[in-house]
Fold:
Amino acid sequence: MRKLALWEARHPIIVIAIAVALLIPSIIGFFCTRVNYDMMSYLPDTFESVQGEQVLDEVFNNAGISIIVFDNYDPKYVDAVRTEIEKIEGVTSATWISTVADISIPQDIMPEAVTDIFYSKDGTSTMMLVQYKYKGSSNETLATIKNIKKLLDKNTFISGFSAIIEDTKELTETQAPLYILVAVTLALIALCVMMESWALPPVILSSLGMAIIYNMGSNVFRGEISFITQAVAAILQLGITMDYSVFLMDRYKEEKHKYADRTEAMASAVTKSFVALMGSSLTTVFGFLALCFMTLRLGFDIGFVMAKGVVFGILVVVFVLPEIILLFEKYIDKYHHKNFLPKFDRLNDFIVKHKAIFAILFLVLLAPSYLIQSKLEVYYDFSQALPSKLVSIQGLQRLKTDFGMASTQFIVVDDTLPSGTLIEMEEELKKVDGVTSVIAYNSFIGPAFPDDIIPDAILDICKKDGKQLMMVNTYLETASPELNDHVDKLIAVVKSYDPNAIVTGEGAITKDMITTADRDFKVTALMSIGAIFILLLFAFKSISIPVLLIASIEIAIWVNLALAKIMGSDVNFIAPTVINCVQLGATVDYAVLLTTRFREELHHGLDRKTAILRAANNAEQSIFQSAVVFFMATFGVYLVCNINMIKGMCALLARGAIISALSIIFFLTPLLYIFEGVIDKTTLGWHKGKNLADAEFADVTPEAETENAQEDENNA
Structure:
């Protein structure tokens, strides 16, 4: 390792040239990676509701069906729009009144089955059904919807699954560059204030930018990533891997005092930092990898990309950043300024003096914070994650208010069932509480008409490949307990007539998602805790230290989620699971830093009070710096983001970084001091070197004390 580090330090131009060259395929890979905006595609195929969506998509081309609502419509205008829509590439059919009847027929004498489908309750609005040639979330279908929007005026709204995805895509592509710009700008400001050179933050950010591009570009081998991963991965990677850059820089400053040649000093810094950095990053990697065990495959998407991002961050810090520092070192030194970081001496004196009070406060907060966060209410309706001003969301609202379609379920049954049986099932479905309408082939056309005289547009919607499709509308809101019970009743009715029938749709899928999310939350939380516990167990050779460290971060997680409950924040169902893994994995390093420093001071022969004070005074500056950068990056996204799912997640991450830092300062510091005796008995080599002569530290001059403090800070 030292030979490699020395070679790199002596050939910075070559190393940087290679690093820059690698950016080219990474950038190409980034633009070639498809972004998936379909959250439903991450649900497991074992759910019957998901299998039903596949049938809708593959058989009826219906999973991505769009509904266009015309306000205060003119029949001739609507029919003209329908004709133009059918000409657009990618549209299979556009079904409206003119498909089944003459538009000159007055509305009040049309069959009730027709008016129930196409007209609002008050008759002032009408809707049109649009089917597509390709899958609902495909790039072709999204491009088709974009072309359809060009034909619609301001009083016309397009909604449905595919329309919501298209709006999400457009909004994300518009805002994603803004996320990065704001996050980088705020992180840069924070670093400029907290570091001792105005030139050093741009140097560090440039190297981390390379790591982010490598990570995002390498996703091309997976084919696609979710839009949530694309939106937050770069921000999280920046906030989390910043620590590693600061650690290397501090180590280099220390090594420069030992070597006359700065390349030798950098090689020594890289060599000594490598193992420590890899060990430190493992806790974060383990936290992200726990997400990969979610039943919802979105967890694997986020977890794998972020774990990979941490690895790229470490590699760039070890193999690229040193050369950039050497190349620009004269500018770093030229624009040196004083350290603006706060001193924690007086605060730590107060905390250690009142250690019992803070330890009791820690115990007092455990139960209520856990109980309150366990009552956190989350939303499962993806439409809540988007701004209400979007056309698709406005259209969805009109469907709810004007057509009684707050939620729609699709029922796929065997087409060989007798017409009388199907009509009987339809009548029973209408009696289920919450149903506003049932749209089915037999009630719409009637059993007396043979299929060969029915327009193909109607047959394609209702009957195909031996299956028949029914649509059940309800006024019950998605993800509500009432709708979940409603879906259970629909399933019971349908299965009594056709055991192989499938009930799918927004309500059925959301009901399955609720069950999945509850399981994922518990499993990933336990796995992240277990993995990090084992890692800390081997790292410290201790039973008690992992308990204290994880407890100090877990209470921070519980307080974070409890505050969300108390403040009434809108939290999507994915956020608590992600926070459990990310906040634990990313901020447990704060606890490791303080504990490691405490052990080092004890090894120097200091008594436990002096050791904890010196460890806290030095380690907490690094903790504060790291937490502030993480906070600034994620809080910046929270300020500018209009997608509630991403906005809420970044709010939790930003607040979580600060709460974790406060927990380490106010809780872990006194706990380490109080339980030092227990730690000694349950940890191998905890007091190694304790019997060194006290005289070594007894007659320390103020100048020597200052030098020791500076050296300790560099070590930290």
Notes: The chain has 29 helices and eleven strands.
